[in-house]
Amino acid sequence: MVKVIGLNSGSSFDGIDVVLVDIENGPDGYPARPKFITGKSYDWPDAVGQIVLKSFENKISIFELNRLNYLAGAVYAQSARDFMKEHGLKPGDVEVIGYDGQTIYQEPPVHHLLRNYDDSTDIVSRWLDGPYACGLQIGEPAIVAEACETPVVTQYRTMDHALAGTGAPLMQYLDYVAFRDIGPILTLNIGGIANCQLAHADRSKMMAFDTGPGNVMIDHIMRVKYGKPYDKNGEMARTGKVDEKLMAKFRNHDYFKRPIPRSAWRLDFGSTYADQFIEEFKHLPPQDLLATATEFAAYSIVRSITDNVKSIGEINTIMASGGGTRNAYLMERLAAHMPKGLRLTLSDKFGVPAAFKEAIKFATLAHATINMLANNIPAASGARRFGILGKLVQPPRLARFTQ
């Protein structure tokens, strides 16, 4: 059994979660369910956070983006080093630190073009004018490796992109590792964007896809209308009324026309989209906007699941995690939309704290990477074959021939 650290800052951009887990491999050679030891959340420094928010909207230069990559790496490094000091962890106590980096941009593959795309001869055309996915995660890993004197694995999505996969979501590997013994089971992660996974002992039967918005539009309305980062427990949304005209607009979003596996990003449901409907429906009280955005988050999760999981009648549990589970009103609306016979519960009941599941995911992926285990699920992402996701950076203390 080895100790691994995982970090996460997701599409909600509401802080950096850091966890420490124990991982050992099961009889089949794959990791067993990680054992959560402890976790803590750290705030982004406001000066850095403001730049990151601008980068989401493509409002910084390439020179500023370059420096932001190092800045974000320093924030991850500070969080991880502080966490290690607070828990008495020294270099060598931890096998690896895993994190993905802060996603700045995400572009999904064009699936209908990929089906008949011949990529056997021209690699360049895959991205020059072809249908392959791409994305950008920032947070320079060398800074983390140096500050913590621990191996670091980061940027998992790019290998899946190279294999013609979506690269998002990534939760399916942890779900296979953690729940292959009790599946099939549906898992739901509610971050800024929400995603759903079908966990199964047979990886060829697994699936994963983003369902649509989680907290991203709710958080934006709160920042614009109330100057606050999020709607605590959904208290403001609870006081509002759902506007049917705005809901009709939401239900007609082009995102639902995309086939799975599919991934969403702020280009679909972020501030630009939110500002448009805030302006169009400016006659609505802010609490009605929040109530409608919250209702849509719940609606889109259930619609995406019922539209795409054909074996839904054989499943009795959906296991939720992510920051959105802290929004009591959102969870109530989600339960109200759930099909009969499908029980909504939290991953805590299975030993995986809902608030820290994404950070546990990156710890698990990093452990697999450093041990050269296949840690993508082609059936879920659309990748052409199995691969090893993640880029490894070794710390200075492991350098040889330094004398």
Q: Order of strands across the biggest sheet?
A: 3-2-1-4-7-13
Secondary-structure element order, N to C: EEEHHEEHHEHEHHEEEHHHHHHEHEHHE
Mean pLDDT: 94
Distance between the termini: 33 Å
How would you sum up the global shape?
Answer: globular
Q: pLDDT under 50 segments (min length 5)?
A: none
Main sheet record: 6 strands, mixed
Question: Beta-strand level of the residues, as a percent range?
Answer: 15-25%
Question: In which range does the helix fraction lie?
Answer: 25-40%
Radius of gyration: 20 Å
Structural class: alpha/beta
Structure characterization notes:
A hairpin with a 2-residue loop joins β8 and β9. It is built from 16 helices and 13 strands. It has helices at residues 46-56, 62-86, 111-114, 125-128, 141-148, 157-162, 171-179, 216-226, 235-238, 244-251, 266-269, 271-280, 286-308, 328-337, 357-370, 378-381, and strands at residues 2-8, 16-23, 35-42, 96-98, 102-107, 134-138, 152-154, 185-190, 193-199, 207-213, 317-321, 343-346, 391-393. The protein starts with a strand and ends in a 10-residue tail after the last strand. With 403 residues, the chain is of the alpha/beta class.
In short:
The chain is an alpha/beta fold and 403 residues long.
SSE arrangement:
Blueprint (H helix, E strand, L loop, with lengths): L1 E7 L7 E8 L11 E8 L3 H11 L5 H25 L9 E3 L3 E6 L3 H4 L10 H4 L5 E5 L2 H8 L3 E3 L2 H6 L8 H9 L5 E6 L2 E7 L7 E7 L2 H11 L8 H4 L5 H8 L14 H4 L1 H10 L5 H23 L8 E5 L6 H10 L5 E4 L10 H14 L7 H4 L9 E3 L10
Parallel strand pairs: 1-4, 4-7, 8-11, 11-12
Antiparallel strand pairs: 1-2, 2-3, 5-6, 7-13, 8-9, 9-10
Helix pairs in contact: 1-2, 2-5, 7-15, 8-12, 8-13, 10-13, 13-14
